[in-house]
Amino acid sequence: MSKKNILYAQSGGVTPVINATACGVIETARQNRQRIGKVLAGKDGIIGILNEQLIDTSKERKADIAALRHTPGGAFGSCRYKLKSIEESRAEYERLIEVFRAHNVGYFFYNGGGDSADTAYKVSRIGDTLGFPVQCIGIPKTIDNDLPITDNCPGFGSVAKYVAVSIMEASMDVASMASSSTKVFILEVMGRHAGWIAAAGGLAQREKGDPPHIILFPEVPLDEKAFLAKVDRAVKNRGYCSIVVSEGLKDKQGRFLADTGTRDAFGHAQLGGVAPVVAGLVKSHLGYKYHWAVSDYLQRSARHVAAKTDVEQAYAVGVAAVQFALAGKSGVMPIIERTSDQPYRWRVGEAKLSAVANREKKMPRKFISADGFGITAAARRYLGPLIRGEDYPPYDRHGLPKYVILKNQTVATKLPPFSN
Amino acid sequence: MSKKNILYAQSGGVTPVINATACGVIETARQNRQRIGKVLAGKDGIIGILNEQLIDTSKERKADIAALRHTPGGAFGSCRYKLKSIEESRAEYERLIEVFRAHNVGYFFYNGGGDSADTAYKVSRIGDTLGFPVQCIGIPKTIDNDLPITDNCPGFGSVAKYVAVSIMEASMDVASMASSSTKVFILEVMGRHAGWIAAAGGLAQREKGDPPHIILFPEVPLDEKAFLAKVDRAVKNRGYCSIVVSEGLKDKQGRFLADTGTRDAFGHAQLGGVAPVVAGLVKSHLGYKYHWAVSDYLQRSARHVAAKTDVEQAYAVGVAAVQFALAGKSGVMPIIERTSDQPYRWRVGEAKLSAVANREKKMPRKFISADGFGITAAARRYLGPLIRGEDYPPYDRHGLPKYVILKNQTVATKLPPFSN
């Protein structure tokens, strides 16, 4: 067969800009029709590939593909599903190759985090063994910003911008009312193991004393006494205290604070977030009136306040994946390389999947201030450029964003159902 | 004395656009320098007036006053403080008049909800009695949308837009992942007594079956069985269920659900919001994986996604207050009159404060669907125009909104301290 198809799949938690990557892949593939067949997409990620549910993106209108650039969520569906080692899950790997063969797939693009890079890497190795070599390319995506080698991960910058803008706005609200009402406000953000997202809240602080006054990181076990003293000081000096807390905040025994006692009406643990637990600490020790917010999925779907830098990078890694494919590469991932801090400049580079797979990038300790409650100048230098620029979705006449929902027609199956 | 000063004060919970009203007042007063003195502003609302803490807005640069139009929070501070009846709090009313007299205040503008209209009304009556007549004008503001006579309240439209956009975005996220992950998402929004804000979430639903699939109103006591059946149906038919719940949701005994059992690590009630309680119901009866968000202050400070209609109306009622003052009016409030649904047209009208004071506008039952879990076409007709149009704040080169913080210099005091 001459032209091979691309099979693209989204993996893990979605981001406000993962569809911008899909847009980059599909638009670039369409510009190279003479060398590339169709772009197929796994319905609900790799689960759809295993089940031979492959979406034919060639059925989508050009304008709808273009609209992916400003549409949040995962347009083809995503899943949390990690393939085990080849030894443990050989049948699954063989099935993938079988599906690739049946649908003339020459290029497998897996758009996800560290787990996905690992999967793409393994698939790249087993193709040869099974007599159907396929070019496997990982494409980075994660709001957690925890992939190694790449300077940052597409998806993170927009969440960072959402958090910085939100804590800035909510703090202005609290500041207005603090003399007679709420004195402590707590915003809970994502980040179970690393404080990248919480750190981004610190970008709202432009001058010393500005909110947020306290950031609670998963990297820093909560020192209750120091925390409460700092809250009290902020309230006494500034009139109020604005706090960003990471969902992964732990106590000194290493237990998640969100796990240590919140019970719902039925006695179930772990319903609450960490924000109400922190609020409880403040209330019981200091007595201040508090409010708290849990942004949860809002933060990772808020395409309406995406960072332009992030959208551009998400699109660029999609474009690069196709270029890598055309250049005959496999077992690689396009990454973001920062070539200059000031002015901020970046380009797309290349990393080996074997180097990216299953390695987590921690937030450097030097990004956290000495007292553990804020970010440093080094953190600002790194984080600052990632939230720059605005990239609004178009809105319709009803005042709502024009997000696209694709037709998502699957191609006819050619294989017997998969049973593992 | 010839030209009298305006004394403007913000009251109660702030909104994303209350400063647009302040902007309308100050810019219009400055255009009428030949007839109006300064615009003074109560620091932290009426508490600042009682304490003779009056901000001199003439010290602010023109560009900073203009920036109020796109700045959330309450630029001069606000407070929750309700004056009692004249009989009970005569000293306070007398103090207000004393402050007015000392600072040559001929016009008192009180920007708030029903309580503030009541206060402005009472002050308008006592001025004559105490020999210092002052023109009192209420200016509507409340995200609760519960003022009578006016078609809607400045502040509500932007919160409505935030909620509609947010539930649309989060639902796209959930839809992408539902096959292998979260199946039920719950967004808690404000509205303790009326479901206006929750109803706005329904605007995200463009076609039957679109999210949000369920809205839980404070007006409709929770029918657990019907609710759970509807959640289950949505998950079975659509793959997931997206829910907007009002913080004021009650059970059949009339108790707030948020009150009925949530306990923090210290055994304190009422830390949790209602969203985790509803999540607990879903989990314990249906077993679905859930996520929940509590938008809290984010929703009422999110100027970054304000509705253009709302910003324009907030500004217009500020302009109208000055025009009313110049026309010699007192005891009145500018209101929004809807002159046409389609196309939506509005103008500023006038209502008597006596008619507005202490009367709450409930959401009509005909806005809630027969099953109690959604909104009707009538609700869409009313709500739709209020979220229309975008009005972005300018952003700086760091990627953050350019919100202004005023100098807020107070004028020299002339009176002995107030002790009540």
How far is the N terminus from the C terminus of chain A?
A: 30 Å
Largest interface comes to: A-B, 86 and 87 residues
Strand order, sheet with most strands of chain A: 3-2-1-4-5
**What portion of the residues of chain A fall into strands of 2 or more residues?**
15-25%
SSE order of chain A: EHEHEHHEHEHEHEHEHEHHEEHH
Radius of gyration of chain A: 23 Å
Number of helices of chain A: 13
Total E-strand runs of chain A? 11
- Ranges of chain A where pLDDT stays below 50 over 5 or more residues in a row are 261-271
Structural class of chain A: alpha/beta
Oligomeric category: homodimer
Structure in words:
Two copies of one chain form a homodimer. Chain A has 420 residues and is of the alpha/beta class. Chain A is 34% helix and 16% strand. Chain A has helices spanning 18-30, 46-50, 62-67, 90-102, 114-129, 156-177, 196-201, 224-238, 275-286, 296-301, 308-326, 353-356, 377-383; strands spanning 4-10, 36-42, 54-56, 105-112, 135-140, 184-189, 214-216, 241-246, 290-294, 332-340, 345-352. The first copy, chain A, has a five-stranded mixed β-sheet with strand order 3-2-1-4-5, sandwiched between helices. Chain A has a four-stranded parallel β-sheet with strand order 7-8-6-9, sandwiched between helices. In chain A, α1 crosses α11 (308-326) and α8 packs across α9 (275-286). The first copy, chain A, starts with a strand and ends in a 37-residue tail after the last helix. Chains A and B meet through α6, α9, β9 and α10 of A and α6, α9, β9 and α10 of B.
